[in-house]
Write a structure and sequence with these properties.
The complex is a heterodimer.
Chain A: E1 4-8, H1 19-35, E2 41-46, E3 49-54, H2 60-67, E4 75-82, H3 87-101, E5 108-115, H4 124-138, E6 143-144, E7 151-157, E8 161-164, E9 168-169, E10 181-185, H5 191-201, E11 205-212, H6 219-236, E12 239-245, H7 247-256, H8 262-280, E13 286-287, H9 300-307, E14 314-315, H10 323-333, H11 336-339, H12 361-368, H13 375-384, E15 387-391
Parallel strand pairs in A: 5-6, 5-7, 10-11, 10-13, 11-12, 13-14
Antiparallel strand pairs in A: 1-3, 1-4, 2-3, 4-8, 4-9, 7-8, 12-15
Chain B: E1 3-4, H1 15-26, H2 37-57, E2 64-67, H3 70-85, E3 91-95, H4 100-111, E4 115-119, H5 129-135, E5 140-146, H6 158-168, E6 173-177, H7 189-192, E7 196-200, E8 211-215, H8 241-256, H9 258-276, E9 282-285, E10 296-301, H10 306-315, E11 318-319, E12 321-322, H11 335-339, H12 344-347, E13 350-354, H13 361-380
Parallel strand pairs in B: 1-11, 3-4, 3-5, 5-6, 6-7
Antiparallel strand pairs in B: 2-8, 7-8, 9-10, 10-13, 12-13
The chains are: A alpha/beta, B alpha/beta.
């Protein structure tokens, strides 16, 4: 019975003069999500609202599932839209709506009318009372509860009249594209895809970089990262994934620096390279999945040492999360099962038995001088291996 | 240069097999159960395939049942045999080094109330007949022993085991998983006292998704698939005509010049084993000589992780198998290597090379030279 959806948005409603930009971005993202759905749709923006109209047969569940991936959407409301043919017709439509949506009528309800078009003969209070009475007349087993009803029946009088009572929660956040672009350091683990998701949720467009280390990591590990990027892109929109061959740098560090510092020095070079690619691609920040204390390279001391190589801001949305909380999000967004596939990533292959947990920046820098001879050349070579994969969820 | 040395995983299909299958898929595509001419034509392919296989094993055509491959053949043999004979007892015997198609099916049968004895192996990967003799009880209804081990190529004493089992109790069913041995050895079930024999098509340059189970006509078997009652009700489902014809074609080609091919494989194996032994700290597992399978060489290389060596060889166009699928997060050491008592440190450093009739001396030479190059380099960089 529903052929129209009202897309409700919360946070972008309060953005002052930039509001239209946010709305435009949201409408774009809604269209992008609808491309994956069977059927034809039209997206309209009228009176500060976004509506999705189905123009053909469509799959209701599939459409709702895809709309639920659009950041900036606070709720999706399937609505019945009718033109104004007088109050009696409206009352009939409302009674009919209740019958179709709620076969079991043993419930409390409340009509919540809103007269946006002020020339409508009844005001909001009158509409509430009259429509409430009409429903009660038709279904005496229903009861009115104005404080905490089981069902709120919204009737909005605009150019057309919209009737709805179902609100499916959306993901919240802000529409992607409304907030610049950042570069995600994507590994094959649980954390980094979640970090990407969370920053994208704030409206940030995402590119990603993955460091692979053949023959120590396999093509399957690389495919796994592409698969993860694809799952994130369901929410974030298309992702440009940069794949960098990191083997030679890693072996060089292994050869020249103390083994316990391998991981931390390696991460410093990853950040450096990621920052360079970020700058070349108009990204204004880096995103990592780090969380304080999770592993040796994520202690506060280690984070400080890693951070020191960058000038761009580093966004670490998981910084205060426990592992279980991260796992929860990854399960919710559907990346968990892929993340736990047992392929080795380049962070673990040479990991020392007792890596430093409280690195000292001066010591690290002194040891990095052992790399002076060859590292710049190797970084340049690594940047040349950049293979870009455009990842889209379709 | 591309060198495919993972023929125990799967093999390249013979071109004659592929051609024949294309012909059947596109022209002679009838359902063998149909009454019309198209059906009869399709049935001819199956009839012919049965003839080829029956002649090859010296058994009757009625004793060949086509399946979707080794796994299904093993499942049918074990479950079908166990359920049909559970009134005589609920004890089964197998070995610790079987393929998962056997081990997991046995595990399932254990959950169903059967008792299973898993025979240990010696350091070369062979069972001991004394252990088998001791394991057999009045309750035993089925023994399943693989012909050739897939990981190290050890060949089990099938003839002796068959004789022993039947001497103890002729009613015990003897099943042999010959997925790795068939196509390399002449196997005659009646002579070896084998009641059931599993074979897979894609290990012998035939198509994937094909295989058969030989079942002695005296054996009672319960089906595990139900449907249209094809193949005497033992294996319902429209016969995979192109697959069956392709499988038979592959068997004809494999056995057409078997002696010559096997001699060549042993020659390659000898060259390879000698070459590998020139490396330091390397152990060739199982039987490096002609008492082991002609096409499988398992090598443990100290200080090199098998997965890393695999990818490094891959980079040079050489495809091999890591003896155990192993990663830093989830080490799953191979059951076979463990049963052989390989030292734990080498479990994750074992690589399997497996040859085929397409393998050449140049390829072996190239592989050895590549290993001489790569291995010292890989040994330099290791996890502390």
């Amino acid at each position: 019975m529903f052929t129209t959806f009202l897309i409700k948005y919360a946070e972008i409603g309060v953005k002052g003069k930039n509001k239209y930009l946010f709305e435009e971005a949201l409408a774009q993202q809604v269209k992008y999500a609808l491309k994956r759905c069977e059927g034809e749709f039209k997206v309209t923006r009228t009176e500060g609202r976004i509506y999705v109209h189905a123009l053909s047969e469509f799959d209701y569940d599939e459409t709702v599932d895809n709309l639920k991936t659009v950041f900036g959407v606070s709720a999706i409301c399937p609505v019945v839209a009718v033109s104004d043919e007088g109050f009696d017709e409206l009352a009939k439509t409302v009674v009919d709506y209740v019958d179709k949506v709620y076969p079991d009528k043993n419930m409390t309800f409340k009509v919540q009318a809103r007269r946006a078009r002020k020339n409508y003969p009844l005001n909001s209070m009158e509409l509430n009372m009259e429509l409430g009475a009409a429903v009660l007349d038709a279904y005496p087993e229903m009861r009115v509860d104005v404080h905490s009803p089981q069902m709120r029946l919204y009737v909005e009088i605009r150019e057309r009249i919209y009737i709805y009572s179902i609100e499916i929660p959306g993901p919240g956040g802000m529409p992607v594209g409304s907030n610049g672009k950042a570069m995600l350091l994507l590994s094959g683990g649980i954390d980094s895809p979640v970090a990407g998701y969370m920053i994208a949720k704030r409206g940030v467009k995402i590119d990603a970089v993955y460091f692979h280390a053949p023959p120590y990591t396999s093509d399957r590990a690389k495919q796994k990262v592409i698969d993860l990027a694809k799952l994130v892109s369901r929410y974030s929109g298309p992702i440009y994934l940069h794949i960098i061959n990191f083997t030679d740098i890693q072996l060089y560090i292994y050869e020249k620096c103390p083994h316990e510092e391998l991981t931390i020095i390696m991460r410093r070079y990853m950040m450096k390279i990621a920052e360079q690619i970020a700058k070349e691609n108009e990204c204004l920040g880096l995103i990592t999945g780090e969380s304080i204390g999770q592993v040796a390279s994520q202690t506060v001391q280690s984070l400080a040492v890693t951070n020191e190589v960058c000038t761009l801001p580093v966004f670490r949305p998981l910084i205060g999360f426990d592992k279980m909380e991260i796992v929860e999000v990854s399960e919710k967004i559907g990346t968990y099962e892929t993340s736990i596939l047992p392929y080795e990533d380049c962070c673990t292959i040479f990991v020392a038995k007792h890596p430093v947990t409280k690195p000292n920046l001066n010591v690290i820098k002194r040891h990095e001088q052992n790399l002076a001879e060859g590292i710049d050349e190797l970084v340049k070579k690594a940047l040349d291996t950049d293979e870009v994969v455009v990842v889209k969820y379709e | 240069m591309e060198v495919y040395l993972d023929n125990s995983a799967t093999t390249k299909c013979f071109v004659q097999v592929a051609d024949l299958m294309t012909q059947i898929l596109c022209e002679d595509y009838g359902n063998p159960s149909s009454l019309h001419r198209k059906g009869v034509q399709a049935e001819q392919y199956i009839r012919y395939a049965k003839e080829v296989l029956a002649r090859n094993l010296k058994v009757s055509e009625k004793e060949i049942f086509f399946t979707s491959g080794g796994t299904e053949s093993d499942n049918l043999a074990l479950m079908g045999g166990a359920y049909a004979n559970c009134r005589s007892g609920r004890h089964l015997i197998t070995t610790q080094i079987e393929h998962p198609a056997i081990l997991q099916t046995m595990k399932h049968l254990e959950e169903e109330g059967f008792r299973v004895t898993y025979l240990p192996v010696d350091e070369k990967g062979c069972i001991r007949l004394e252990d088998l003799e001791r394991a057999i009880t009045g309750e035993t209804i089925l023994v399943s022993i693989m012909h050739t081990n897939n990981e190290v190529g050890s060949v089990q004493p099938i003839a002796e085991a068959g004789a022993l089992i039947k001497r103890k109790n002729p009613r015990i069913l003897f099943h042999v998983d010959a997925v790795q041995g068939y196509g390399k050895y002449r196997i005659f079930p009646k002579k070896l006292k084998i009641d059931m024999l599993s074979v897979s098509g894609h290990k012998i340059h035939g198509p994937k998704g094909t295989g058969f189970l030989y079942v002695d006509e005296k054996v009672k078997l319960k089906p595990i698939l139900f449907g249209g009652g094809q193949q005497n009700g033992i294996r319902s489902g429209t016969e995979n005509v192109p697959g069956i014809a392709g499988l038979a074609k592959a068997v004809e080609l494999m056995y057409g010049k078997l002696d010559e091919d096997v001699a060549k494989l042993y020659e390659l194996k000898k060259t390879f084993v000698e070459g590998v032994q020139k490396l330091d700290h390397v152990i060739v597992n199982g039987h490096p000589d002609e008492t082991g399978a002609p096409h499988i060489v398992s090598v443990s290389i100290r200080g090199v992780r098998s997965e890393v060596l695999l990818h490094a060889l891959e980079d040079k166009g050489i495809y091999v198998s890591a003896g155990s699928a192993c990663s830093a997060h989830k080490p799953q050491p191979s059951a076979t290597l463990k049963a052989m008592g390989i030292e734990p440190e080498l479990l994750g450093s074992t690589i399997r090379f497996s040859f085929s009739v397409f393998t050449t001396a140049e390829e072996i030479d190239y592989t050895l030279r590549t290993m001489y190059d790569i291995i010292p380099m890989l040994r330099k960089y290791t996890r502390s």
